[in-house]
Design brief:
It is a single chain. The strands form 2 sheets. The chain has a 4-stranded mixed β-sheet, with no helix packed on it. A 4-stranded antiparallel β-sheet has the order 3-2-5-6, covered by helices on one side. With 236 residues, the protein is α+β, with helices and mostly antiparallel strands. The longest helix is centred in the N-terminal third of the chain and has 19 residues. The N and C termini lie far apart (95 Å). The protein has 2 domains: 84 residues, Sandwich (Immunoglobulin-like); 91 residues.
């Protein structure tokens, strides 16, 4: 009799524990992590280039092949800038939907410019919807020292001011720079004319615009400094 009561008690204890665990076996699988697609951007035409993803650079030095990891089911703006200033930058909206994809950077001999040819998957047919305006706070973050040094290294790696301007305009997106940082970046350009264009484009990316007079001190000619200051005054 005592053995029967003990067996019933033991059986009820096991059932109670299983109920508290929700009936799940001890080795049930965990929630899978977000999947990532590998994108390779390469050129068979021997073109060296930089790749920007949503305005962010992916490498410091130009290359003929760049490998990028991208989460699935998101739209990405892929921008390719070459080392040759005569070739315009090419843009493609890309959505990874398979484990691996490729974008070929080709030279269009008719137009004389580069074009981006995706394969597996193809780009979406329509451009992405315009982004929702971000709240006034928090805004874009100030460029860190590590990001600044990588950005400056990219500009120094270019041989022509025209290509530097193209790379700089992309790098200025979605981030803020101090006046000291912008002054140092402007000094990388060879000619005053290019520095003027850079400082005009960089004003809206300045974290402390009230001190922008610091930036124009890098300009050689007083007429160049006056041109930038008049441009800023008209924006205010």
């Amino acid at each position: 009799m005592r053995r029967a009561i003990f067996a019933i008690f033991l059986l009820l204890s096991v059932v109670s524990v299983q109920a508290q665990r929700g009936g799940r076996p001890s080795g049930h699988p965990q929630t899978p992590q977000p999947l990532v697609s590998e994108l390779r951007v390469s050129s068979h035409d021997n073109i060296q280039f930089y790749v920007f993803v949503n305005g962010e650079p992916t490498q410091i030095l130009p290359s003929r092949q760049v490998d990028i990891s991208l989460p699935y089911q998101n739209d990405y703006e892929i921008i390719v800038v070459t080392k040759t200033p005569q070739l315009r930058a090419a843009t493609l909206v890309y959505r990874p939907e398979t484990p691996a994809g490729n974008i070929d950077v080709r030279l269009n001999h008719r137009s004389g410019n580069i074009e981006l040819v995706p394969s597996n998957p193809a780009p979406i047919a329509t451009p992405p919807a315009p982004p929702v305006a971000p709240p006034p706070y928090p805004g874009p973050s100030i460029c860190s020292q590590e990001q600044f040094e990588a950005f400056a290294s990219q500009l120094r790696g270019e041989s022509f001011d025209e290509t530097r301007l193209t790379v700089a305009q992309i790098g200025l997106r979605n981030r803020l720079f101090t006046c000291q940082q912008l002054q140092a970046l402007a000094a990388i350009f060879t000619f005053d004319e290019s520095r003027v264009k850079f400082l005009k484009a960089a004003y809206t990316s300045c974290a402390d615009p009230e001190n922008y007079v610091i930036c124009v001190q890098v300009l050689t000619f007083s007429s160049s400094r006056e041109e930038v200051l008049k441009y800023i005054a008209n924006l205010r």
